[in-house]
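wait is this the right file?? whatever heres the structure
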């Protein structure tokens, strides 16, 4: 008789966490009866799994009193749902769901999935951030039966900063639809975009236009690079910092194409904001290199998918994920790196977040990208090994480990 597994996430919509939630739901339904739960169906389900979906029907938003009231309504509703479904084990994705999962815990087992660095997340700030980091996480996370981190480097954070028992912690990396990504990457670009790619070397980046992805310094680096190396920069994605990033590009004298504006797509521009794409991989595979300037991560889907596309990848050595992906046998350095590290599966670069060293760090990026653009043999090698490395992140490899962990937790008294 198959065990009943309930998966909880605060909201649906477009995002890496929602994509991972979908993958977990699909893959784990091969072994368990999976039901999905969401706080409220305020956003479209862009990644439907085919498994049953339950809404707790509790909206977000409002003032402090309403938020607290809704929080406890969610706890009550999830507790009732667990009882109605006779849930054996409940896995929560994202911090808001973690708290509700833990406080509604009954006889079922509880697993939390930590999808990103908490210590380095600059969105966790102010009084609410202090409450989360200093009270809620240290107090509640200890109640979990297991905590799964998507990167090995999140484990020390959980132990040192939040007091979690190391024996409860495991690292299971995110997985990617490796075969599907590679297949989609073979689709040709639209003719107008192909003309852009044919006109100059292309640097491409993919991700939400947001503080975490830290794209503004990339524009400064690109503007300097173009003085000696004609090239173009393509942004895949959209987000809350769209206007700020586009304005910064223009302030540097770069000619900007915006997919959401009524502009003809031609090779005359320097920077291309192509927005959200149904198939981003067709833009990544033919690029000269993939650049990834994030300030922090978990185990980034965008970087793994770029590796799957077989392009050389250049990434900040940010917490957490890129080092584990590109230099898996190396230890995490005690201090941020200040020079390019040509690693086994890609290039690790200084972060672009320290105002005191930013000018020097940007110069390292410029010099490294210039060297990469001038070395076709090195690019081919890095693209080939990146694709080879991506095979370690298949669903089959990842979810064998998940099944083993879940069965171990279910067997515990």
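ok assuming it is, sequence goes like this
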């Amino acid at each position: 008789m198959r065990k009943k597994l309930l998966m909880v996430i605060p909201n649906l919509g477009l995002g890496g966490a929602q994509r991972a939630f979908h993958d977990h739901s699909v893959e784990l339904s091969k072994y368990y009866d999976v039901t999905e739960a969401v706080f409220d169906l305020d956003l479209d389900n862009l990644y439907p799994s085919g498994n049953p979906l339950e809404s707790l029907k509790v909206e977000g938003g409002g003032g402090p009193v309403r938020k607290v009231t809704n929080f406890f309504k969610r706890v009550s509703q999830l507790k009732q749902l667990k009882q109605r479904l006779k849930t054996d084990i409940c896995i929560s994705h994202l911090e808001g769901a973690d708290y509700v999962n833990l406080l509604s815990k009954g006889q079922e087992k509880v697993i939390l999935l930590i999808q990103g660095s908490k210590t380095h997340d600059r969105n966790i700030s102010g009084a609410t951030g202090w409450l989360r980091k200093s009270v809620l996480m240290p107090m509640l996370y200890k109640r979990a039966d297991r905590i799964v981190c998507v990167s090995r480097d999140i484990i020390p954070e959980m132990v040192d900063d939040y007091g979690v028992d190391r024996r409860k912690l495991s690292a299971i990396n995110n997985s990617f639809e490796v075969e599907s990504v590679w297949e989609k990457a073979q689709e040709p670009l639209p003719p107008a975009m192909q003309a852009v790619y044919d006109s100059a070397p292309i640097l491409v980046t993919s991700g939400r236009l947001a503080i975490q992805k830290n794209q503004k310094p990339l524009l400064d680096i690109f503007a300097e690079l173009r003085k000696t190396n004609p090239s173009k920069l393509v942004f895949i994605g959209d987000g809350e910092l769209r206007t700020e990033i586009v304005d910064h590009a223009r302030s540097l004298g770069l000619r900007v194409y915006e997919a959401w504006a009524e502009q003809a797509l031609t090779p005359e521009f320097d920077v291309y904001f192509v927005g959200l794409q149904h198939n981003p991989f067709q833009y990544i595979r033919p690029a000269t290199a993939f650049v990834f300037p994030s300030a922090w991560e978990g185990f980034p889907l965008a970087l793994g998918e770029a590796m799957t596309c077989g392009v050389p990848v250049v990434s900040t050595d940010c917490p957490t994920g890129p080092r584990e992906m590109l230099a898996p046998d190396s230890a995490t350095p005690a201090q941020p790196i200040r020079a390019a590290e040509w690693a086994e599966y890609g290039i690790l670069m200084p972060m672009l977040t320290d105002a005191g060293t930013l000018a020097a760090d940007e110069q390292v990026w410029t010099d490294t990208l210039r060297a990469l653009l001038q070395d076709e043999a090195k690019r081919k090698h890095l693209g080939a090994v990146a694709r080879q490395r991506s095979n370690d992140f298949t669903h089959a490899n990842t979810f064998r480990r998940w099944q083993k962990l879940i069965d171990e937790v279910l067997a515990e008294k």
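The first strand starts at residue 4 and ends at 9. so i think its the right one actually
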